[in-house]
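In the laboratory, one determines a bound structure by crystallizing the protein with its ligand and collecting diffraction data. In a computational setting the workflow is compressed into a single prediction: the sequence and the ligand go in, and a structural description comes out. We illustrate the idea with cytidine-5'-triphosphate.
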Amino acid sequence: MQLLGNRKILLGITGGIAAYKAAELVRLLTRAGAEVRVVMTPAAQEFVQPLTYQALSGHRVYTDLFDAEAESAMDHIELARWCDLLVVAPASADFLGKMSAGYADNLLLTLCLASKQPVAVAPAMNQQMFANPATRDNLRQLIGRGVLVWGPDEGEQACGDVGPGRMLEPAQLLNNILSQFGPGKLDGVRLLLTAGPTREPIDPVRYISNRSSGKMGYAIAEAAMKQGARVTLVSGPVFLAPPFGVELVAVESAQQMYEAVMGEVADCEIFIACAAVSDYRVAETAQHKIKKTGEVLTLQLVPNPDILAEVSALQARPFCVGFAAETENLEQYARGKLQQKNLDMIAANRVGSAGSGFEADFNQLEVYWIDGGQSIEHAGKSEVAKQLIDLIAERYTRARS
Ligand code: CTP
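The predicted complex, in structure-token form:
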């Protein structure tokens, strides 16, 4: 049974009687082919010896934030990056409280803060503690931040109480973990993406640019990666770290972006043009810094190549997705661009309204294709990216069949 072949699971164990059940979870996960590393909080070690999990996982158990030996093998940031999924089971009321407050005073809490991967918690506590509004608030906060909360179960508790608070059974937790790794919708698909603004030089110290932050493009790159795509990101200058595993080609001007895209496009099956490319560049960039004279200064601008239109005009063209930023007549203008540039899909957003579009953390899209369309509701850019990638995967798969 290799249902989780090559999947890397970081299992966090906190202090609670259900810690003994986590041993069964480690056994099930390793039997399913996962590579499991266990991290224990100090309280967890009061219930079960680390050696138990070491024997079952085949790896040393991480317990200490300041363990020089462990840190030299794989430091805590590497460990946070190493995993595909971080599962805290059991997750005590105390741990959930600290996690929701952003504490980092033990190794497991630090990993929860440092990990960009999905985090799931399986609460386990006395039913009265679970019912307490403080615990409820903590869980609500965590859910709001995208943490997966699995359980708890109802039933008889170790303390003799009956009610909700039992940790989900290991077999159920295994099922939940498996469902996180359904087959990727873009497994092995090569996807090329542009993101961010471009900078068009005026002289050695000045340039023309725009307000694009690159956040939407970077979120799309990450969402595509999560669906198994091999992503190349051609990015203008932004203040963002590229998502782990994405191949980054950093450029500045529209001309450089054009050349980078044309160099990569032959290998790609999906092209998404998310960059806010300057439509014009300065006709002649000054060799030296332009000095003020008190006279009117005129800059002559010439058009830049339309990268998206050039890609979609290729003979062996990839599935092409464009973006349209509009302040009015959204559908009409977006559908116009869909046709003019011969695209498979276009994602349109309204700019100029507060709370979405350029620079914001949220977005809202209207996605159109020749004989249909779909709205993606106002949400965080990573959620919007996830839904957009789902839609692109669906349309791309349909176009290929
Ligand atoms: N695009 C591109 N290369 C350019 C200009 C735009 O690849 N030189 C892409 C963008 O990444 C985006 C789409 O084309 O996917 C935007 O189309 P465009 O017609 O340029 O939009 P606007 O600049 O908003 O057009 P207009 O000013 O006409 O509304």
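Residues 194, 254, 273, 275, 277, 279, 304, 306-308, 322-325, 337 surround cytidine-5'-triphosphate (CB under 6 Å). Keep in mind that any predicted model is a hypothesis to be tested, not a measurement.
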